[in-house]
Design a protein that fits this description.
Blueprint lengths: L6 H15 L7 H8 L3 H7 L3 H19 L9 H16 L3 H10 L7 H14 L6 H24 L6 H35 L24
Helix pairs in contact: 1-2, 1-6, 4-5, 4-7, 7-8, 8-9
């Protein structure tokens, strides 16, 4: 997943190796440069903070998930498709689980990473063939982010090679999320209809100018 032929890849790998042995909070960029075998000035050309390194790692994981994601099967339910994609992500992250666990212990919440993590949810939804744009898509992204954050913590502690606890938790929370977000979709659809009712025709999108009512949104994960 990490290109160790590049300074960037070596820096990320070095940071994760150190995270397995030391507190992430106490690590310095100089420590990481030494572990990567590069000069600190060269590291400064790639990253300005440890958070930047974590962002780059998450992006590398996103890319690998998109490469490995199962081919979409339209016979599968949307929930099953997103289940497969999330489990693919855990497979991608497996070699780095010890480091990620130590980082979570050291820094349980990093606000600067929230946009990056939401971007990951966007790409996992797209890999599963689920729209992630617009108001409804934004609701899906946030909803999946909530599910993933909880299941990620379970995965970090799941020592079963078959990841039974992780899969059970993911399935359970996706079912709950589907129901909750389905209700939110209904609210979004009602809000659109209300806006269309009060806006002059010239301010509406072309598809909302028709005399016939717009069909309600489908299920949240489809």
């Amino acid at each position: 997943m990490l290109d160790l032929t590049t300074p960037r890849g070596r820096i990320i790998a070095a940071a994760l190796r150190l995270a397995e042995r030391r507190s992430w909070r106490d690590l310095t960029l100089a420590d990481i440069a030494d572990e990567a075998g590069i000069a600190l000035v060269d590291l400064s050309h790639e990253f300005h903070a440890k958070t930047d390194i974590l962002r780059a790692f998450v992006k590398a994981a996103d890319d690998e998930v998109l490469r490995r994601a199962p081919k979409r099967n339209e016979d599968q339910s949307a929930r099953d498709r997103i289940f497969d994609v999330v489990m693919t992500r855990f497979d991608v992250l497996a070699p780095y689980r010890v480091a990620l666990k130590k980082i979570m212990w050291s820094v349980p919440f990093e606000p600067a990473l929230v946009p990056t993590m939401l971007c990951s949810q966007h790409w996992m939804l797209e890999a599963a063939g689920i729209a992630s744009d617009g108001l409804s898509g934004g609701v899906r992204v946030v909803g999946l982010g909530s599910v993933y954050a909880r299941v990620f913590r379970i995965w970090l502690e799941d020592d079963d090679p078959g990841l039974a606890r992780t899969m059970a938790a993911l399935d359970r929370r996706l079912k709950r999320g589907e129901q909750a977000l389905g209700r939110m979709d209904d609210i979004c659809s009602a809000g659109r209809r209300l806006v269309c009712a009060v806006l002059p025709r010239g301010f509406r999108r072309p598809e909302e100018r028709a005399d016939t009512p717009r069909a309600a949104d489908g299920p949240t994960y489809t």
